[in-house]
Amino acid sequence: MRLEEFRQRVEAEFGPKLQNATPANVREFLDRLQQEAWDNQRRHSERYVMPEENARTYEEVMKEFFVDVLELPAEKAVMLLWTLALDLTFAAIEHQYSEVLDPLFRTAEPTD
After folding, report:
1. What whole-number distance in Å separates Cα of residue 19 and Cα of residue 55?
2. Greatest extent of the chain over all pairs of C-alpha atoms, in Å
């Protein structure tokens, strides 16, 4: 996907200033992008080749990810980093919402 198409899809999904973005629809959008990437890869190859993973911790996985991104064409790197930032940002927002709203839905525990 080209950057301009990506930009158009983001705007169509969330509005020109992301004013319609929520943790739920961000997750759905990112899941759809991932599914499309998977389907596209399957169209080009019947077999999935599992990449060899040397990382043992989340920190190592992320370091490898960022090193790999530096090797990508600029447009692809921008889209990948943008989607990662969107995912992490809205996951943090969702976590913050849950901390605020959780007490409202918690049932009172009986006292003996």
Report:
1. 37
2. 64
Domain ranges, residue 67: 3-102
Provide the whole-model pTM.
0.76
Q: Tell me which residues of the chain have a pLDDT lower than 50.
A: none
- The answer to whether residue 108 is domain-embedded is no
Per-position DSSP letters for 36-89, written without gaps between them? HHHHHHHHH-SSPPPPP----SHHHHHHHHHHHHTTS-HHHHHHHHHHHHHHHH
Instruction: Tally the domains of the chain.
Output: 1
In a domain, 16, yes or no: yes
| Residue 110 belongs to some domain of the structure | no
| Residues 45-67: tens digit of each pLDDT | 777 677 777 888 999 999 999 99
**Looking at the domain assignment, is residue 8 inside a domain?**
yes
